[in-house]
Design goal:
Radius of gyration: 16 Å
Distance between the termini: 23 Å
CATH class of the largest domain: Alpha Beta
Structural class: alpha+beta
Number of helices: 2
CATH architecture of the largest domain: Roll
Strand content: 15-25%
Largest sheet: 2 strands, antiparallel
Number of strands: 4
CATH topology of the largest domain: Membrane-bound Lytic Murein Transglycosylase D, Chain A
Shape: elongated
Strand order of the largest sheet: 1-2
Order of helices and strands: EEEHHE
Length: about 90
């Protein structure tokens, strides 16, 4: 079950049949919303996405907002010391 505050809460579910013939419920692909940043943050050594989300949104679980605003595919590559990242609004 997906929490109502999850970014996947409104994503449709699909039923698919796996290789063993079993029906599995999966989520459709989630479209990444277009995001315009309010400002940029330059990460310091040791900062992580959850630290940044806590600082700007007061909720470390909102790290995905920063990920969505980035053009980087892997969340572990979003925060690089000294490379500015976009901080989108908390809508």
């Amino acid at each position: 079950m997906i929490d109502k505050t999850s970014r996947y809460a409104k994503v449709a579910e699909l039923e698919v049949v796996d290789d063993a013939g079993e029906v599995e419920v999966v989520l459709e692909l989630r479209e990444t919303p277009r995001s315009t940043g309010v400002f940029r943050h330059t990460p310091l050594d040791g900062e992580r996405l959850d630290h940044i989300a806590q600082r700007y949104y007061r909720d470390p679980k909102k790290f995905w907002k920063v990920c969505d605003a980035s053009d980087v595919m892997d969340p572990f590559d979003v925060v690089v010391t000294g490379r500015p990242i976009v901080i989108p609004p908390d809508k």
